[in-house]
Amino acid sequence: MSRRILIVDDEQGIRAALGQLLEFEGYEVRTVANAVDGLAEYARFRPHLVFMDVKMAGIDGLEALRKLKEQDPSAIVVMISGHATIQTAVEATQHGAYDILEKPLDTDRILVTLRNALAHLDLHEENTRLRDVVRSKFEIVGASYAIRTVTEKIERVGKTPARVLITGENGTGKELVARAIHSLSTRAKAAFVEVNCAAIPSELIESELFGHMKGSFTGAVADRAGKFEQAHGGTLFLDEIGDMSLAAQAKVLRVLQDGVVTRIGGSKPIQVDVRVLAATNKELESEITTGRFREDLYYRLNVVPIHVPSLRERREDIPLLIAHFIAQLTGPGGLAPRAISEDAVKRLGQLDWPGNVRELRNTIERLLILASGPRITADDVDQLVGRRADAGEGGLGSLLDVPTFEEFKHAAERAYLIAKLRAFDWNVSETARALDMPRSNLYKKIERYGLSREGGGVPAPVSGADEDDDE
């Protein structure tokens, strides 16, 4: 696609000569004789670059430049002047001009300026495309009550400086939550630095976090800033914090208290301004009990807790996630596009997904690559993924092993109620409404089966009169 160039100049000779040169170079060119027509033509033609004269009757070029930048802040404008002065150049730059050229125009200077300006435009477009790709990659997808609860918490805590502890199974999207919090914060334009505490050997984690000085240990061949320094002014995400050694935990606690780090082998304290977000798939309360995690660090990190639900707790989001991953994986330079049948989507929704959203994405990629026809079918799912039923609470699994039908009914009802309560974040009123069940009945069943939220007690009663018991 050829680039479009607009020329705005009141001299017919300039318009003709410059237009002829640019058309010869392969550009699509339009010319107008005054600023008013130039502004109107810009809206219609949407050029990639504008050459505009400074001195014109009526609205001059500088005023037209100002109006054009108000209309389109990204417009690339090169000014042309027969009497260019430093003051004119400064004023044009202040209004957003890319460059200013003097008359008589030099062909080589025009072409060099044009190539540089369009290269700048190409870079801007590529950056925009990459930002869109990154934004898509880290987008939180879902419309279920469980995921809406998470996004509401993200929106509330994002603009605050509070530390957040993100919990959930592997593959649920804890990093996505951390990135969403960072993007909503006042630190969004600063660095987001991630450290996977489980992937770094315990003897190296302190060097990774706090940095080191040259010669402080074998292999320290140069001074190196740690992750806390790299995240200065931004956000540090400590993923899998439950796997961090106790020695490193003590030093992280000190940094959170004092806002100061000291590199290994160094003596100079370095002030850091960092917001810390942490994530874990472990029950840190249990880790504290067994002495593997510091209780004081836990309370420092757990200012605002956010639990990311498993995919089993938000199955209604699976069709949305499937569509999202297909669009993501078959984008420009990706896999060949394929449709997917409703039966295949339904079959995928019935699987247990121990790897959660990460496993679902990998599964969709496998189906796009290996499915035999132009359309992914339920048979493809059976052949390439398997027929795993949900073995957790809420599916059949071990329920089929109970000895009597009566026990099966009670076990199935218990599993069903747990799944529904989880789906609505243990909100009894919302769950009862979804089940079309009187709230008092649901409370009785919760008490009968001894149901309780993970890490908490039986859901508290909601104020107000209960509906009549229908049992």
Would you mind describing this structure in some detail?
The model is unreliable at 389-395 and 455-471 (pLDDT under 50). With 471 residues, this protein is α/β, with parallel strands linked by helices. The protein folds into 4 domains: 4-133, Rossmann fold (3-Layer(aba) Sandwich); 145-307, Rossmann fold, CATH 3.40.50; 314-384, Orthogonal Bundle (Helicase, Ruva Protein, domain 3); 393-471, Homeodomain-like (Arc Repressor Mutant, subunit A, Orthogonal Bundle), CATH 1.10.10.60. It is extended and about 95 Å long. The longest helix has 31 residues, at 107-137. Helix 1 links the parallel strand 1 (4-8) and strand 2 (28-32). The chain has helices at residues 12-24, 35-45, 61-71, 86-94, 107-137, 145-158, 174-184, 202-210, 227-230, 246-258, 284-289, 295-301, 318-329, 342-349, 356-370, 378-384, 405-423, 428-435, 439-449; strands at residues 4-8, 28-32, 49-53, 77-81, 99-102, 164-167, 192-196, 211-212, 224-225, 235-239, 260-261, 270-271, 275-280, 304-307, 339-340, 375-376. The chain has 19 helices and 16 strands.
Radius of gyration: 31 Å
For the sheet with most strands, the description reads: 5 strands, parallel
Question: Beta-sheet strand percentage?
Answer: 5-15%
Report how far apart the termini are: 72 Å
Return the average pLDDT rounded to an integer: 87
CATH architecture of the largest domain: 3-Layer(aba) Sandwich
Number of helices: 19
Q: Tell me the domain tally.
A: 4
CATH superfamily (homologous) name of the largest domain: P-loop containing nucleotide triphosphate hydrolases
What share of residues is helical?
Answer: 40-55%
Query: What's the shape?
Result: extended
Give me the side-by-side strand order of the main sheet.
2-1-3-4-5
What is the highest CATH level, the class of the largest domain?
Alpha Beta
What CATH calls the topology of the largest domain is Rossmann fold
Q: Report the strand count.
A: 16
Low-confidence stretches: 389-395, 455-471
Content-based structural category = alpha/beta
